[in-house]
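Supplementary Methods, section 5.1.

A reviewer requested that the exact input to the structure prediction be made available. We therefore reproduce it here, unchanged from the version used in the analyses.
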Amino acid sequence: VNQGQASATLGLAEFEAILSRLKLAQLLSGVCRLPLDKETLGGRRIVLGGSVVRPSAREASELLTVIDYSSQTAQTMRVPKAKHREFFFGHRKRLKGTDLPLVRWVHMSGLDLTLLLALTVKYGLHPLSIEDVIEQCPTKIDRFGCHYFAAVEQLCLVGAMDGSEPVRVHGRHVAIFCSGPPLFDTILTVTEPDHDEKEDW
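The structure derived from this sequence is encoded token-by-token as follows.
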């Protein structure tokens, strides 16, 4: 970048931040349409699981919950669609009355591809772990650089407490992302029903 006689340079971190914000704006404005045909990962998920996964299939306030906590306090907030830009472009604030470092836990209940991709851009999640979330990989733990990823296949028993009906087994898929050193300050979780449940049980 040239400014008159002086020459200014753009560092890698600044360039990456600009690209990330452009991609977030593209995702959140709806300009970036997600392909959902058989040849894409999202389409493959639909074909394999037999379930319908659409961007913004549910109300966003039902999907995204953020908890900022420390050893002494916690604050929970839902992130409705109207607050997406504020959340994705903003930074976490310190809780009033404490100087302790905060851990941020971002939880997505259900799978919204647009929100998942926006979280990927905001937090720099590894593409292979995102693929594992979409395809609901078997239980595993991975490390990508200084970040950690775990996937857990969870089984739950469902039935009336009095035993008046047969017990049913429901599967859920839980994905966990943890930021690594030096801060260890961010956890992301994604939970959704097992899309192969009818085939397995």
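The longest strand covers residues 147-158. These observations are discussed further in the main text.
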